[in-house]
Sequence to fold (248 residues):
Amino acid sequence: MFNASSADDAPQPPKVLTTPLEILANIKSLMDSHDPLIVTFTERQQRFQSFVVAVDRDRGTLSLDELIPRDGERFMSNGEAFRVEGFHDGVRIAWESNGAYSILDTAHGRSYVGALPAEVVYHQRRNAFRAALKLSSLVDVELAGDKLAKGIRGKLLDVSATGCKLRFEGDITEQLQLGQVYDKFAAALPFGAITTPVELRYLHFEERLDTSFAGVRFHNMGGLVQRNVERFVYQLQRETRRFDKDDF
Fold:
């Protein structure tokens, strides 16, 4: 079986970022990549989804997208403390908020505005390295199966050994359901096409781009498919490191 692990790929200990520049840069990376956030309130077990929609360096504020499910807004309005967790390129970025957030209604939708955190936990977990594809070489994908009337074609934006991020033209949020397993996800990888079931973990339509972004987790993946995915991730990881060295 293909094994891409090495000493460099071992999980790294978490770091606590405290400088405003580091905090701003990491939260902005979540925003720019439309990475989903998991929001949990301290006294509650329910999990909510959101996104970073704006960062204001001068005012020291950030804006979160409307919570899904919507009833989480009531907890935020009551000033309950909550924790935010997101993943960007295999890095876990998390912070806690104890301050008040104000609700803002605009032409672009509902959002919550609060202060930038004083600390951010940055945890590189290389055993789940998420490799981004270059825009010039995005992989064609299709989501299909019994749960869909017809297949939906899109592009692969990034991939890890456990899941991937996808891009689709237009608004497909009415066609898909969070938590649903779709039994035919196909991707045209350089080593050959793969087909595997996937579970839909998040879904977001960006109106200004007329584009939908989805995140899926591989589900009951076969051995051969898993080896091809790991091989592809490892190749992208090596290319990333080579480019980083060239830049240095």
About this structure: The helical segments are 20-32, 72-77, 223-247.
